[in-house]
Specification:
It holds the Pfam family Glyco_hydro_2. This protein is an alpha+beta fold. A six-stranded antiparallel beta sheet has the order 3-2-4-9-6-7. A six-stranded parallel beta sheet has the order 25-24-23-22-21-28.
Length: 832
């Protein structure tokens, strides 16, 4: 290595792992070392070597629980070269250890870590030697450790998983959740490396802030250096505009590297659908003469963001509105859970793919839920590029967490690491203290009206420690203590954010009642459905493909607060409210998914329809629970674990369109409005067409209107009576192009005789044409694992559409159906 320059050596090859003998270890598992993949976890190694079955198939989850009850020893023999030893400093960097790990180098214990979320940097110069060295990482099972802490400090209330999880800083969903299995992973899940250096950049803050008038921006740079710098060591900072022009440059003494750079006329970064996402590039280099000792490069966005909590005209309480570059944003979007329990299988391309789906669905915000992980850099990079605002929970979920000194110290270390890593991303819109911990505190009398806060230890975390960390390290991003929180209780509809679970959980209200349970910002709501038939086929045998088979129900983890399974029962209630009993498993899956899609229409119309206008933002966001799945399962997700969207995805995509017409039935009357997120008012035409289910025209009307910018515009269609068997199509046109449609069908489906709509479908290459003779509801194109450019369609009598499949497909593998229709093949010409 060149004198003075830093060298980083990845320690990723040559590892072995072996089980430490214990009572849970099965006889078939070798007692000796096995090849190991680093970064990784032991489940992946056992799976790749055929020592455990795929835990996502059938009932195999139950067969692999011994893995998480066993201690595992990772070992690596590696060489230390003279060049590495010649460096003044040599560190072992362990970027992520899952979770209880004892680190030993050449027989010397260096660390005992009890957290999955903190990167470690250890000075190993005193214990390395020239040539061969041995590094050992022993991972002990988390359950005995958690139970010991529980015995010492007391058992605490939780929803989901073993109660001892609240004492352990491990991804909480690994303990099992109401949408995921229990897999207690262990291993070095992030990079392991040696870092040899003279000096290095220790902490680099690059905060690009925009003035209130949006005309100027300032880059604040604050750099600390590890290792005593020489008098002539320098830090060079260069800011490059999105088009490659250098717009700022300074050279600072390494001993006190702080400066601000002015950026006139900044190119603003906008949320998806509101403008472009130009990214500046900040390069920070630590120099000694002509030698670069260390460097950091970051992409930055120039954006002005605030969380407005202001009066709502004519209503109690305050708004909860994200305002970006002076523009109020209706934050339609989704909640994010980790993409897998075996996290090392998730690639940057997979992150990008899933987030691109969110962006294509007209989503503006993604909430990273507090029971998972601080996601991979690739997640936040993609959000920066796609214009997706990120609501980031700290990692506390559905539990009464402790606050004894050792726990607080660990949380402080974790929070500082997370905020420092993520604070430069323009996508970051909110730091939030926890998920539903105020709710569970209310349930045990420790919070809310009449609660005893002296028994709510974790207030020290959510209302003191975390906001202090955010204020010190990332004051540009607002902090919120918990989701939901803000009002007199977590169910307050007039202040803060709210989780609306009266539909599905709670009183199991009909989904058309979503509007009764609104909040100023609805950060969770949802309704379950099965995954695609293709996805179901990945974990079942043919004999398992029944609505209530053991395997199919095992892949529905929904439960009541006491942990008793209740997902299939609740799903059956919502299904029976809408449909006659299904005559086949395929029809059961189709009906269940249609109910979820209808529920999402109800929710987004209720919430986005209350976006209002400036000074009257009654509801400012709606985040569906949930965007994605971590394994093949019946859940609230709108995209299944194979990446195939459900019908609900397309419903949400339409309701969140930049210009969307929305309509609801009110008895026999029709009420409608147009909601826009576009920044210019525009002339539009609304067309209302009413038919019988048999396709006979009943009523037609055309209405001209001016659609207000970034607001809801009421729509007067006159006195229209919708009789029980009528279907109303409401469409909005701009410059003679249809921009949106809302369709009101007779409800419930089970009380109306939907005639066979005479669907037809024809596939040519990847282009599929689909048409109908009669009004067709919920036209679903099933193409296996292929995605469809548009789906879950409501078609006018005689209408046909063309869509594109994501890959070549045999026409025999494409099936199309609608309410009242049997499945139609892609070569079927009926109705033409």
């Amino acid at each position: 290595m060149t004198p003075g320059t830093a060298t980083s050596v990845l320690l990723h090859t040559g590892w072995t792992v072996q089980a430490v003998p214990g009572p849970a270890l099965p006889d078939h598992v070798p007692r000796g070392p096995l090849p190991a993949t680093v970064p990784g976890t032991v489940h992946l190694d056992l799976l790749s070597q055929g020592l455990i079955p795929d835990p996502y198939q059938g009932l195999n989850e139950l067969e692999v629980q011994w893995v998480g009850q066993t201690a595992w020893l990772y070992t690596l023999d590696f060489e230390v070269t003279p060049d590495l030893l010649a460096a003044p400093r040599l560190d072992l960097c362990l970027d992520g250890l899952d979770t209880l790990c004892t680190v030993t180098l050449n027989g010397r214990e260096l660390l005992r870590s009890d957290t999955m979320f903190v990167p470690w940097r250890l000075d190993v110069r005193p214990c390395v030697r020239p040539g061969s060295n041995t590094l050992s990482l022993r991972f002990d099972p988390v359950l005995p450790h958690g139970h010991a802490l529980e015995a010492e400090h007391g058992r605490r209330a939780v929803w989901n998983g073993d109660p001892s999880r609240v004492y352990v800083r491990k991804a909480q969903y690994h303990y099992g959740w109401d949408w995921g299995p229990t897999l207690l992973t262990a291993g070095p899940w992030k990079d392991v490396r040696l870092h040899a250096y003279d000096l290095r950049l220790d902490d680099v803050r690059t905060a690009l802030t925009v003035a209130d008038d949006l005309k100027t921006a300032t880059l604040a740079v604050d750099v600390s250096v590890a290792g005593p710098p020489a008098a002539d060591d320098r830090v060079e900072v260069t800011l490059t505009a999105p088009d490659g022009r250098v717009v700022g440059h300074t050279v600072l003494p390494a001993q006190d590297a702080r400066a601000t750079l002015d950026v006139p006329a900044p190119e603003l970064w906008w949320p998806r659908g509101y403008g472009a996402q130009p990214l500046y590039r900040a390069a920070v280099r630590l120099r000694r003469g002509d030698t670069v000792l260390d460097s950091v490069e970051r992409r930055l966005g120039a954006r002005h963001l605030r969380l407005a909590q202001e009066p709502v005209a004519g209503e109690p309480g305050t708004s909860f509105t994200f305002v970006v570059n002076g523009v109020p944003v209706f934050a339609g979007g989704a909640n994010w859970i980790p993409e897998d329990l075996l996290l090392n299988r998730v690639t940057p391309d997979q992150y990008r793919d899933r987030l691109q789906q969110a962006a294509d669905g007209h989503m503006v915000m993604i909430r990273v839920w507090g029971g998972g992980i601080y996601e991979h850099d690739a997640f936040y990079d993609a959000c920066d590029e796609l214009g997706l605002l990120v609501w980031q929970d700290f990692l506390f979920a559905c539990g009464m967490y402790p606050a004894h000194p050792a726990f607080l110290d660990s949380v402080r270390h974790e929070a500082r690491a997370a905020v420092t890593r993520l604070r430069h991303h323009p996508c970051m819109a909110l730091w939030c203290g926890n998920n539903e911990d105020y709710q569970i505190a209310e349930s045990v009398g420790a919070s809310g009206p009449g609660g005893d806060p002296s028994t709510f230890d974790a207030l020290a975390i959510y209302e003191h420690l975390l906001p202090q960390v955010v204020q010190a390290l990332n004051p540009e991003v607002p902090y919120w203590p918990g989701s939901p929180s803000g009002g007199g209780s977590s169910h307050d509809q007039t202040v803060g954010d709210r989780h609306t679970w009266e539909v599905w959980h709670g009183v199991m209200a009909p989904h058309r009642d979503y509007g009764r349970y609104e909040g100023r910002f609805v950060s969770e709501f949802g309704l379950q459905s099965p995954s695609s038939l293709h996805n179901i086929g990945s974990y079942t045998r043919p004999e398992d493909r029944r609505p209530h088979s053991r395997v199919f129900e095992h892949h529905n983890k929904a439960s009541d607060p006491r942990g008793r399974p209740d997902g299939p029962r609740r799903l059956a209630v919502y299904l029976s409210d809408a449909f006659q009993p299904a005559t086949s498993f395929e029809e059961y899956v189709y009906h269940s998914r249609l109910v979820q899609a209808d529920a999402m229409v109800s929710a987004y119309r209720a919430y986005r329809g209350r976006w209002g206008q400036d000074g009257a933002r009654a509801v400012s966001g709606a985040l569906v629970w949930q965007l994605n799945d971590c394994w093949p399962v019946t859940s609230w997700a709108i995209i299944d674990s194979s990446g195939v969207p459900k019908p609900a995805y397309y419903s949400i995509q339409r309701e969140l369109a930049p210009l969307a017409v929305q309509a609801v039935r009110s008895g026999d009357a029709l009420r409608a409005w147009v909601v826009s997120s576009e920044q210019q008012a525009q002339a539009a035409e609304v067309r209302l067409d009413v038919y019988t289910l048999g396709g006979e025209p009943v009523h037609s009307r055309r209405v001209e209107l001016e659609v207000a910018a970034n607001a809801v515009t009421p729509l007067d269609v006159g006195d229209v009576t919708l009789h029980a068997g009528h279907v109303a199509f409401v469409r909005v046109f701009v410059a003679a192009q249809e921009r949106s449609r809302a369709v009101l069908w007779p409800e419930p489906v089970k009380h109306h005789d939907h005639p066979e709509p005479a669907l037809w479908a024809r596939l040519q290459g990847r282009h599929l044409s689909v048409g109908t003779t009669l009004p067709a509801r919920g036209v679903w194109i099933d193409a296996g694992d292929r995605r469809v450019s548009d789906n879950h369609l409501d078609l006018l009598p005689g209408e046909h559409v063309s869509v594109i499949l994501s890959g070549d497909t045999d026409p025999a593998d494409v099936r199309v159906r609608a309410v009242g229709s049997r499945p139609v093949g892609a070569g079927d010409q009926r109705g033409r």
